[in-house]
Amino acid sequence: MTIAVIKTGGKQYKVTVGQELNVEKLEAEVGAKLMFEPLLIADENGEKVEVGTPTVAGKKIEAEVVAQGRAKKVVIIKYKPKTRYRRKAGHRQPFTKLKIVKV
Q1: 3 state SS for 48-103
Q2: From the CB of residue 66, how many other CB atoms can be counted at a distance below 10 Å?
Q3: Domain locations in the chain as residue ranges
Q4: What's the pLDDT tens digit per position in 75-96?
Q5: 30 to 6, 21, 65, 66: CA distances (angstroms)
Q6: Is 90 exceeded by the pLDDT of residue 57?
Q7: What separation in angstroms does the CA of 102 have from each of 16, 38, 44, 66?
Q8: Angle, CA 97 vertex, CA 73 and CA 2 arms, to 5°
Q9: What pLDDT shows up at residue 55?
Q10: Subunit notes for this chain (predicted)?
Q11: What is the reported pLDDT for 66?
Q12: How far apart are alpha carbons 77 and 90 in whole angstroms?
């Protein structure tokens, strides 16, 4: 089994074939194929490791968009004592669910 590290949305993710993961929202339709350039590729034992500068040349990670969605609501409360100041707001972060097809 091969392990790779990809970068998307300002974050890095360790991925393997068949894995599903939520990443920052990408502008892509459900079912679309996306290609990522790996920063690192290794086998599961860590014996054969390819490190990119900054990416591994000639290698691609293929992923399929499974769903577009929004995460659970996070409630934000601001409160200052003795001043009658209260604010309550909510936020739902959009995400894209990917399935790694090929490493």
Answers
A1: CEEECCCCCCCCCEEEEEEEEEECCCEEEEEEECCCCEEEEEEECCEEEEEEEEEC
A2: 15
A3: 2-102
A4: 999 999 999 999 999 999 999 9
A5: 20, 14, 5, 6
A6: no
A7: 8, 12, 15, 15
A8: 135
A9: 86
A10: Part of the 50S ribosomal subunit. Contacts protein L20.
A11: 96
A12: 9
Rounded Cα–Cα distance for residues 18 and 12 (Å): 18
Vertex 13 angle, CA 30 and 32, to 5°: 15
- Work out whether strand 94-102 and strand 85-91 pair parallel, antiparallel, or are unpaired: unpaired
Q: Each residue of 13-39: pLDDT tens digit?
A: 999 999 999 999 999 999 999 999 999
Q: Which pair of tokens denotes residue 58? A: 């000639």
61 closest CA partner among 100, 10, 89: 100
Give the per-residue pLDDT at 34: 95
